[in-house]
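Quick question: what would this complex look like in 3D?
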Amino acid sequence: MLGAHNSESRDLSEETAMAKLLCQYRENTCMVDVTKLLLNFTQLESCGKCTPCREGAKRMLEILQKICDGMGEMQDVDNLELLCRVVKGSSLCALGQAAPDPVATTLGHFRNEYEAHIKEHRCPAGVCTALVEYGIQADKCTGCGICLEACQAGAITGEKDAPHTIDKAVCTKCGSCIQKCQFDAIVRA
Amino acid sequence: MANMTLTINGKEVSVPAATSILDAAQGAGFFVPTFCHDPALPSYGGCRICVVEVKGARALVASCSAEAANGMVVETESPAVVEARKTILELLLANHPADCITCEKNGNCRLQDYAYRYEVNPSRFGGERHNYPVEDNNPYIVRNMNRCILCGKCVRICEQVPDRAVVALAYRGFNTKVAPPMDTDLAESDCAYCARCLLVCPVGALTYKNMIGKGRQYEIRKEPVTCSFCDAGCTFDINYKGDKAIGVTAKAPGNGRPLCLKGRLGLELLYVDDPMAPMLKKGDKFVLVSWAEALGFDGVLKKLKELKK
C-alpha cells in the first residue's frame, strides 16, 4: 500500500523495493478495515514526541473505527483528507510522515468503499461486523439443524428438514453458523 | 562568521551562519508561533506549530530546529502552513479540557492566543481525551496533566540542574505524559519546588498553589525583584492586584543558580501582604514549619537568643 497512490507517475517496483513489502488483497478484504489495521500499527509505534503523529494518527484511527462501526459521516472523509495532508507534511520523522499513506491510498483508489460504509451503511467486502447481516438462503438450506446447534445466541430457528431462519435482532454476528454449514446456505452481506 | 542570505516572505534577510529559520524570521519581524521552543533550552522540534514552507523541501520544516541557508526561500504564512498550524491546534484542543474560564493561565496562554489567531474550530475532532486526576497533594505546585500539550519544556529545564531532573516524558504515543519517576507525583519525588518548570509552561498544566483564586492574569501587575538570599541573584516577580501584593512567582534563574524555594518563600514573607504558610517535607509528609526554619535561620536565631542572655 506504501506509495501505490502515485504508482501512475513513479516506478512501483522502486517503491515496493524500498518498503520491502508487497501486500495483496482480494475482494473479500474491506479496504477501510485493512487501513485501520495498518494505521493501528503506526499509532502504536508512535513515540509521542511530535503533535501531528501523536494526536493525528490517534484521531485518524478513531475516525476509521467510526466508519467501520457504521457511524461515519461524509465530514469524516474530509477530516481524514485534512489529517493526511497535515500529518504527512508536518510530522517530525519518517514514521509520522508515512503514517497517513494507507489512508491516502485507499481514499484515492477505493473511495467508493468508504462511501458505501457511510452513505449506504454497507461493507462491500462483508467484513465490518456492524454493517453485515447473516441470512439463510431457503433454496440451499436442507434443514439439517447443524447451524441451529452451533448458534450460541439462539438466533436460529426452524423445523428439521425445513429451511431455517435467523432472527437478526438476536444474532450476534459471531459467524459460527457459516463455518458449520456444509451447504453454503448461509450468506454474510 | 559567514552570513547566510535567504528570502522570507519575499523579503531578503541576512543572518549569521547557524541561525535558525525561526530566529531569522522573528528577527525580520515576522510572526511565528512556538510552544516547545525556548532559546535557553536545547532544541526539541516536537510541537510542530512553528512549521514553515521552504521551497524545494519534501515536507514542511520546523523553523526552530532548521538552520537558515543561503538562497533559501521561506514562507511563514502560506496556505499549507496555516492549514498545518490550524490542524495542529485543533488536534491539541481535541485532547485539552475546555476549562479556560477557571484556568489560572487564562489570558496569558499560548494555546489560547494561537487558537484565537488562527480561528480554530475547537470541536473538529472528537474522540478519547485524557482524564488524569489533578495532582495537588503538595503545598506549592498544582499539576493538571489534562491541560499539558507535551511541549517538553518543563522536562528540559528540570534536566538543566543535574541532581534534579525530576520529571521526564513517560509512556509513548497518545499515552505520553510528563511524570516523575515511576509515574507517581511531585510529593513523592525529589522535587525541590524551585518552579523552573512553571517559568516555561506555555499552558495551564502547572499552577502556583499560592496564586490560585487570587486574580486573573490581566488584573495582575508584576514587579521584578532580585533575590538577595544568596549571591546568584535570581529574579522573582511580585504580583500585585491593585495595591495588594498577592504572591511571588519565579521570573528568571541567576547565573549558575537553579532558582530555589527558599528564595521564593523569603520574598513572599518580605513583600506579600498575606504570605503563604511555609511547609517543608519531613519524611513522607509536608509539615507546617516556622519561617525561621523554612528560611534556614533557626540556628542563627537560637545563638542570638543565647547571646542575649
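Answer marked as accepted. Residues 51-68 of chain A form the longest helix (18 residues).
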